[in-house]
Amino acid sequence: MPDVSVVIPARDAEGSLGLTLDALSQQELDGEIEVIVVDNGSLDGTAALAEARGMRVLRRPRGDGPGAARNEGAAAASADVLAFTDADCEPSRGWLAAALGALNTADLVLGPVAPVRTPAPLDRTVQITGHTGLFETANLVVRRATFERAGGFPAGLEPREGAPFGEDVLFGWTAVRNGARVAFCPDALVLHAVQPRGTREFLAERRRLGLFPLLAREVPELRRSFLHRRWFLNRRTARFDLATAGVLGALGLRRAWPLLALLPYASVVREDARTSGRRAAAVRIAADGAAAAALARGSAASRSLVI
Fold this sequence. Notes:
Layout: E1 4-10, H1 14-25, E2 33-40, H2 46-52, E3 56-60, H3 66-76, E4 81-84, E5 89-91, H4 95-102, E6 108-110, E7 113-115, E8 140-143, H5 144-149, H6 167-177, E9 182-184, E10 190-192, H7 199-205, H8 212-218, H9 222-225, H10 235-253, H11 263-276, H12 278-302
Parallel strand pairs: 1-2, 1-4, 2-3, 6-9, 7-10
Antiparallel strand pairs: 4-8, 5-10, 6-8
Helix pairs in contact: 1-2, 7-12, 8-12, 10-11, 10-12, 11-12
């Protein structure tokens, strides 16, 4: 029996999966590692690449979300410890050794995720420095018994477009409610790919933020573990909302003093312009407006306020 089974859901990941498998082959772990790649209906050579590298490959029809793929991989795994990462990640050499060490006093272990290189202002990547309450599956290691007691990954929230949302959050908090001990291990580092992203994609992604109000309704613990001051998605949205309220107040009262509420958000915009350039700063202002609209719609639809 292997010491740990690593489950990797993959869809059209031929360009990045090889780096993930290279990183897993270099793990500094005194024990056996089983790697299972769950191909989610890829249209490229993802499955063939994994098979050529000697990996165990499970094939699923296209259209199912990553949670279902992870569940199938977990069901086929042999070890009593399950490790999850993604096909655009590169675990550090000490990832599994550090995570398994942390499992001595925990049932579920999370670790940091850092960009593999410095991203451009609009690029897509993942950066995690502590336990946020989101239970991100780019870097999650869990005892099989804990995983099965929680029922695995649920279907998640279903957006009108795009992949299911929040299945990792729902799984993690179900495990906690069942008594799972959670630890964050700083030495269990995973690197995440940086993917170029244009203005249209950057703005379109903000529409998915409208699912956070429903997620907060399903997982009220997020109001203390993740949300800013319980009602705001983060500090930036809080400053944007304050600025919006200031503009509306100035118009309604026909006075200038409510415009002082713009100052906190203006400082954010100035910093964006200084570090990323004026164009990127302008795009982020538009993205903040799109996020505010998505959160307002989501809050109204779910009757759960997150702004």
